[in-house]
Nitroreductase family protein
Amino acid sequence: MSEHTQLIDALNVRITTRHYDADPIDPDAARQLESSIDAINTLSGLDIQLVQGHPDVFAADNASGHLANASNYLALVGPKGDPESLEKAGFYGQRLVLTATLYGLGTGWVAGSWDADRARSHCRVTGSQDLYLAITIGPSKTEAAYGSQDYEALCERQRTHRPSKTYEELTAPMEGDARDQAPDWFKAGVEAAAKAPSAMNGQPVLFAYDPVRSDAVARLDPAVSTGSLVDLGIAKLNFQIGAGAGTWLWGDGGRFIRS
């Protein structure tokens, strides 16, 4: 893959990886990733862990061809029964996904393609914690196939990789005039959120610009049954990167405070 140095670059080229190389993660990349994980855990109160060399967690899907050579994962662990931490797992998990992209690694959010009990046996989960879900990670056959392509070609690959909702669909709560007159930072945030992964590609997060408060609001779309707080967190992270300076308040209906 071409070298990228900004999170927005990673956001613009990253696609879900299902086929991995059998080689282990490069030790230098693993150390850098562990450093990023430590910083995020301190900031978020989560206990995200990099677990390597356990293909048994993905044995069924590796055997079926849904995945290939999946053996490493980010275990998203956090406080049990805490909705805010679920959203943070999406937000900060996506931050690590984009960081891994900058290190040349493939990633894939996992909901059903894993053995959660086996995954728990390979990571730390205390009695007060849950293993929310996992993110496969590793050297990627998919990315290796595009290693000679430039940034623009990789962006085009992502654009055509899967269907995406339009700006109008993702801002459905807004009236037409308000939608058109929203500031550029809001439009850029929605454009970035449109590239966020989500369960079953449901893209269940809707955004609205509030002209009175000059901020934005994100809500789960009740019409999308697959939507979750993890999806909300992922979409918020992408929006924040696209919009630039600003901070989200947690929760369904949380506001993006532009700074």
Summary: The mean pLDDT is 93. Residues 162-258 form a domain with the NADH Oxidase fold (CATH 3.40.109.30).
